[in-house]
Amino acid sequence: MTYKKKPSWLRMPARGSExxxxxxxxxxxxxxxTVCRQAMCPNLGHCFQRGTATFLIxxxxxxxxxxxxxxxxxxxxxxxxxxSEPQRLAEASAEMNLSYVVITSVxxxxxxxxxxxxxxxTVKAVRSRIPDAGIEVLTxxxxxxxxxxxxxxxxxxxxxxxNLETVERMFPDLRSEASxxxxxxxxxxxxxxxxxxxxxxxxxxxxxxxxxxxxNALEDLRGIGVTMLTLGQYLQPSRTHWPVDRYLTPDEFDVxxxxxxxxxxxxxxxxxxxxxSFHAEMHGAGPNI
Length: 289
Known about the structure:
Number of helices: 11
Strand content: 5-15%
CATH class: Alpha Beta
Strand order of the largest sheet: 1-2-5-6-7-8-9-10
Helix content: 25-40%
Low-confidence stretches: 36-40, 42-46, 283-289
CATH architecture: Alpha-Beta Barrel
CATH superfamily: Aldolase class I
Largest sheet: 8 strands, mixed
Number of domains: 1
Shape: globular
Mean pLDDT: 87
Radius of gyration: 18 Å
């Protein structure tokens, strides 16, 4: 399998700068992981230079094997959640002087609650340590468990995010252990549990989906109450992962942003290098970027 050559507009931000080094140092000090590193995010250097990071809790190995994802599959038993992690994450957030904290995780199907209680404990720890910070959670589907979603809702994050990732037709090939309709149900049910909390989701483009399928997915998301959206270019992590079908141009991403806004999304981040938490402190605050 060969890679498609990346176009000129997909230039990865540099990973240097004093601020980026400071972020790495703090993460090491508190023994924390980030999805930025584990998922090989192209914006790692850019975000670290801004003093931001998306924290990855519940370990760095996943119980699922999505064909687009760089995070390692568990392939065996996983450690129990580390009870000290929420407080360590809160301390690191305070030391980084964060005004907006994004918390995500690997999928932990081995845990009865999917890790929801650990998510909730982490939100509470951050809220206690830096009360004025905004908090966004980017969660797995918890196998559709309402009880798990209630645990998250009770911790009162400022934004709830669960990514749809791709269009319905491609779920069996790309996310065989997940369900398009379950993901929509998770988003809809959370909106009912916490009606005042903004609901966010995102899609990767360039996997082989059609324009009609993208439109259908956007309409499905709006139809169940999602108001915040991210659209970004899929980038193949390795030769063994799902190949890139095509690279969309920046102009195409602008067109999709306009379409999303036209069908009622209130906040849309759309561009080749946009990821779920890219400039989340701006996106989470509500303006279109």
